[in-house]
Amino acid sequence: GYLILLTVLWFSNASYAPHDMDLRYEERELIRLSENLTEDAKENYTAEFDAESIIECAKDVMRVKEGRIIAFPYPEIFDKLDLSGVFLPYTGHAYINTNEKPFLLPYVAAHELSHRKGIVNEGQANIEAYIHCMNSDNRQFRYSASVYALKYALCELKSKNEAEYLRLE
Q: Nearest Cα to 55, choosing from 138, 135, 149?
């Protein structure tokens, strides 16, 4: 009974939007954002990504004392479910898909640890992870966050201005 109650309470908050925000923006703002994220990615570029070191560093980057990040032992299951990672509130463990592109793993680990900090909403966890990664001294985490955010921005730009999308891609 307790687990069912916890599940209902936990997942009922997953789509909670704390503020009624007007998400309209001008196309030029999106282009400028995409250009800035491209520059951030170039400045922080690194090709050195090791899952074990990412797992070790993520707790420090996110300033999380408790909880663990675990490389999911059956990543093909995550692949079939199209999951990069998942946080289990019952155990406090974050599982990451090591089949994910290596340069995305630092951001995925940070995102899952955002949930460990009590942030249930996916969008808010993205923001928390992005802020901590970009403020980190760790180049892997800064690059990963830049690329992840750029991926979102370019996806939005593609639907608004195909020519600018192609230029920045």
A: 138
